[in-house]
Amino acid sequence: MLTRPELKGQAVVLHETQRGTERIVACSARAVALGVTVGMPLAEATALAGQGEREKGEGRREKREEGGAKRQSHSLMVDAKPQAAFPLPSSPLAPRPSPLAPRPWPLAPRPSPLAPRPSDPLADRRALESLAEWSARFSPIVGLENSTTPEGLLLDVTGLAHLFDGEASLAERIVRDFARRGLTVRVAVADTIGAAWATAHFQHSAFSIQHSAFLVPPGEVLPALRPLPVAALRLPAETVELLRQLGVDRIGQLEALPRDELSSRFGPELLRRWDQAIGRLVEPVPMHGQPPQLEADCSLEHPTTRRETIEAVLEQLIGHLAQMLLGLGRGAMRLECRLDCISVGPARAEPVQLSVGLFRPTAAAGHLCSLVQMQLERLRLPGPLSGMHVAAATTAPLLEEQQELFSLGDGLARRHARYLAELVERLSSRLGRRSVLRVRLLSDAQPELAWRYDPLVENSRHRSSRKQSPAELPPRPLRLLRRPVALSVTSIIPEGPPVRFQFCGRSDRIAQHWGPERIETGWWRNHTVGRDYYQVETTTGHRYWLFRRLRDGRWFMHGTFE
Fold first, then answer.
1. N or C: at which end does the chain have fewer Cβ atoms within 10 angstroms?
2. CA–CA separation, 67 vs 255, rounded Å?
3. pTM attached to this predicted model
4. Are residues 255 and 133 in the same domain?
5. Tens of pLDDT along 102-143?
6. Number of domains in the chain
7. Per the omega criterion (within 30 degrees of 0), is the bond before 516 cis?
8. Are residues 182 and 272 in contact, defined by beta-carbon separation less than 8 angstroms?
9. 54: CATH
């Protein structure tokens, strides 16, 4: 309703396809008043809402007709004499109804009052994440409930109640602030996440401090949970249904059953949720905005030195990690592997660390495995492998590219870029990341200090930065000498452009020149630099980059244009 204010007050329902049928997954208060419920087929909800609207319309019409008849009889009584002045139906002058007179057509069926909209879980999650960021005013730790389709927020208010004049005042303020945003919420404060979730979803009278706010006093978790249904423990629907068939509907009934039998009959999930709700098992708030841990590990029951087994475990872990990356829409830029080995002899075997850098983000498990295996080929383990840990240390958004039927134009260029990335990554894995380098420009006025070598892999941030336009700087030589070389230069005037210079025993006459371009370093450097640069072209067609040092007037060559 916040993004679509025109739907406010309407019977809005959200639907999605479930087992081939469009079913209602959420409905507004107006839709509930018409008899629509969650889980109902959309066709049934449309018919039910239309029938309810027609019944309401007929009731309103009957009331209007009743009121109209009363008013008509009253007016007739008041206006009796004037009405007698008109011809009566028994008079021969009274108009008679014609048999050919048109009769009123029956009213067409009214359209359904429902406003169906397809469900968008991704948009719902983004809206909930936005509310989580806004709710940071109440607590620094805010998270979404742990569910595939979260519907609520979790706040850790430990030690914060005194800032809001108590927990009750905090709950009431949260309800008021959400109401100002046009949202109706239910708030519950309890010792555990499980108790707060159960109270907010299923409590209706007890522990209420306001119509939509509930406060479970410290140490009163069990009394608050006993009268609630077992679904309040956040159990799977299958478990809830099985408990119902056995006659266990309330948490208080579940409390009286032996724990061993519950675990053997319903699995460990039931006891885990029960222990989390009563505080026996710690359940931290999953903080929103915290980056997920993109890692996977495996411990071997029997340590091994077989290369085939090690590669199989590696493929399994990297495959699991690639699935997590794909789910987040990100790709690995640096992959780190740790190989744990057992000691063979008196010396303690240290873990072996491997690091693989990538030129572009990728979540392809096969490609990542091949890069790690290149380093494994050159590796000698200090002992049998007992465990392995794989983590994506650095990630970046995946590049989405559309596949083309014919690789022409842009498609061919993208394919060549992909081949280049694979070549760079394989060379870096084989030779080391410091062996495959690129030149990166730095913001420095002194030309010999305005660049440095960086590894081609793991530098996505630098590659994505804004590139300087050629118009921002005068032309620079393609080849820059490591150190400027002193020259003997002839010029017409002392501080004028060069006319002739001698280099490597050869005298060159300058046909034309461009400049000067003055370059000076700041005063904060210990050794200041001041130069006038000229781009010159000799009569033989060669181009050079020369400069005159301002402090003594000496000339130097600094680069060549090719």
1. C
2. 60
3. 0.47
4. yes
5. 555 555 555 667 788 888 888 888 888 889 989 988 988 898
6. 4
7. yes
8. no
9. 3.40.1170.60
